[in-house]
Amino acid sequence: MAKMTLEDLRNLREQKKKDMSKRDSAGKDVRIIIGMGTCGIAAGAKRTLDAFIEELDAQNLENVAVTQTGCMGLCYVEPTIEVIVPGMPSVIYGNVDEDTARRIVNKHLIKKEMVNDHVFDRPAADIIKDGGK
Questions:
Q1: Is 22 contained in some domain?
Q2: Is residue 104 in some structural domain?
């Protein structure tokens, strides 16, 4: 392993602090909660989490907290995530791979529309019919 300079260590520290700030919910009004039980991890939840972080960075969204939880009870549609956005119903999405994670950021978080083909729990059917608004 190559030796790191003091500058390398400082840069690494700053990058890790930036990465960890996504997990801090203080002052953030949008939450993405990723199911990281063993079933979720086995289904690819870590790749899903990484895709959310990358897309949030790419879209420069700072008001979003990304956190983890255990099993959400929907093991048959893992990876599962819950999205909480003010003014919209709380939604649990299933079968969320990297591409779907990017769609959720761009459609649900930015455009305020649900990704209806991945909704697996909540909200009521009449809300989904209205485009999730």
A1: no
A2: yes
114 contacts 71 by C-beta, under 8 angstroms: no
Question: Rounded CA gap, 68 and 32, in Å?
Answer: 8
What is the three-class DSSP state of 33? strand
pLDDT digits (tens, 9 = 90+) for 94-113: 999 999 999 999 999 999 99
CATH number at residue 77: 3.40.30.10
Residue 19 covered by a domain: no
CA distances from 121 to 23, 77, 94 (A): 24, 11, 8
- Range(s) of the domain holding residue 104: 29-129
Residue 2: predicted pLDDT: 75
Q: Is 101 exposed, middle or buried (0-12, 13-18, 19+ CB in 10 A)?
A: buried
pLDDT digits 0-9 by tens, 68-90:
999 888 889 999 999 999 988 89
- In this structure, what DSSP letter does residue 4 have? P
Instruction: Domain count for the chain, please give it.
Output: 1
